[in-house]
Amino acid sequence: MTRIAVDIGNSRISTAVVDSGKILDIWHYDTLKPREAADAILTGARAHKAQVAIASVVPEAAEAIVRLLKDAGETPVVVTTASQPLITGTYKTLGVDRIASIVAATRIFGKGKGAFVIDCGTATTFTAVSKNDEFQGGWITLGLGRTLRALNEHTDQLPDLTSKVKSVNQLIPGMRTEDAILSGTLLGHVGIIKQWLATANAVLAGEHTTVITGGYASQIAPYLSEVEHLAPTLTLLGIDLIAQAEVALTDPS
Fold first, then answer.
1. Does residue 191 sit within a domain?
2. Over the chain, what is the mean pLDDT?
3. Domain span at residue 44?
4. Whole-structure pTM over 0.90, yes or no?
């Protein structure tokens, strides 16, 4: 079945056409522009005769998109932490995007193992799941881009380098303030993730495959030898998998 998977994040809305576990097309919108995103989702759903599945960590944006779709005659499947049937042991406020990512990680890359998923977006998160689909905990810190913004907002003289975050590609000490901020922030995130993985491997039972995803994943992954798989579209694939499971429960035929 073809499905339009929608991931509403803090900064952007990512949408993909997913068919038989493969992404055929993908596009992104600012989270502050839900109407624009809804129009594109509706067009995609009608063009592909596809069901829409939505996962969101921004309730207001999700409500706006669902309302616009329903007004146009489309009834989306809304995937939530409470409704998903695939991962056990979760807590109420665990982001459904993190659940979607670990679902996809275990089913696409796990091969009988659990998974560690590092998501490098607005926040940088770590999520662990066992091979038996039991949630094993995680960590959260401020993301790469927002760290740069925070340095500017909370100091008198450090510049805002958020727009240059994609240009940083080295970890050596900077000879200028700008270079020191960019390489220092990237190195800090690499160090955080390495420590997370070392700690997780020490305290969590079972074998795990390590997957990195999110908007900054391609930038950070080259410095992490511990990471086995780079999968920028992991969350969208997970939304599709959870939607399949939820539909199967409500319509066994």
1. yes
2. 94
3. 2-79
4. yes
